Amino acid sequence: MKFLHAADLHIDSPLRGLHAQDGAPVERLRGATRQAFVALIDLAVRRQVNLVILAGDLYDGDWVDFRTGLFVHEQLARLAAHGIFVFVVRGNHDAESVISRQLPRQDHVHVFSSRVAQTRVLAELGVAVHGRSFPNRAVTEDLVPGYPAAVRGCFNIGVLHTSLSGSPDHGTYAPTRVDLLAATGYDYLALGHIHARQVVRESQPRIVFPGNLQGRHALETGPKGCEIVTVQDGQLAQTEFVALDVVRWHVLTLPCQPLTDIDALRAQFLAALAVLLAGDRSRLHVVRVQLRGESVLHQMEAVQPGLLEAALQAGLRHWDGPEVWIERVLSELTSPLDRAAASERPDALGEVVRLVDRLAGDDTTLRQWALAALESLPALPVDLGDARPDRLTPDQWRALLADAEAMVLAQLGAGLPDSVPVGGVR
């Protein structure tokens, strides 16, 4: 017996903020969740699995119209022709109370009840599948105590959408503990909700979050896909993770301290990209680049904002590797300014450096000063929510302060005597 375990497909999940970015492959990103789901169905047929288990959040929320439901319905119908059963639990995004539109039931697809945990036994396969759906988004109680006992003589699979004991990147839903899952006597716990793949427990029972099927933004990096599990003589015999994402997100960090010019930055970027992608031409790669270190590049960017991103974009014109789109370039660079010498100056430059040093030395003072300076600004657009002042950490405030200082010093530095280096340029 062989089964496929996937979760958090978020079919037709909306994208935010990409329309504002020139050259963004919006249509390809919008269709990525559908393409990944088609790849999952293809895989199930090709590998001749007996069951497909979907552990919650098949949908991202209520359908805008019937097209989302019809697409999923049609894809699942392909499995019926091959005698493949499908078991589904609803999660917080597609809870019973969330999905208002309904399509006819499919005989080979079982959606577990949201009122009580159920067991479905497929005697011909020697497997028992247990599960319970979310009745609404906010399920705060532990559902595990209500799950049925393991069926003797069967390979028992428990399906649950849960945050376990909690995750900093995900809301707390149906929280439970590993020891309670183990006490069910099941052989495999097919979990959903956490978007990063995680093998919580290797065996007796094996407990797995497969991660989401398709990364949707720069915080969902790396391979995304599903688990294929083989059972022989009632025992777990083999497990395999299969990547199915059609768009893969990456964060590429470039140390810039030794770099002295734009050409060196571009060369380092292309070399690092070649290592990161290792010739994988089977999908689109979306890369967020982080520039770090003390470098003269910081001052160059201050003089010409956007220079570094433009340099990396230009570098892609000479790239002959896998398809790449740069989602964003984030600068965490600092200037090699001789601060001690600059702070002794009696002029405006010295005053700026002294002010920055005072603000950067105290988190509370910096935050209060910055919020006061921002009072007159309008609210940020929704897609820039991660830059909201009330969400910034002290380190992020200091990074913004350093950027502001560099811009001011770039304006003041034109008339500096050669004795005081500003941003590494004498």
UniProtKB/TrEMBL annotation:
InterPro entries per record: Calcineurin-like_PHP, DNA_Repair-Maintenance_Comp, Metallo-depent_PP-like, Mre11_N, Pesterase_YhaO
Molecular function via GO: exonuclease activity
CDD domains listed in its UniProt record: MPP_Mre11_N
Keyword Hydrolase: yes
Keywords: Exonuclease, Hydrolase, Nuclease
Signal peptide range: none
Pfam family, one: Metallophos
Domain of life according to the entry: Bacteria
Keyword Ribosomal protein (UniProt): no
Domain Calcineurin-like phosphoesterase: 1-196
The name this protein goes by in its record: DNA repair exonuclease SbcCD nuclease subunit
Species of the source: Sphaerotilus montanus
Organism ancestry: Bacteria, Pseudomonadati, Pseudomonadota, Betaproteobacteria, Burkholderiales
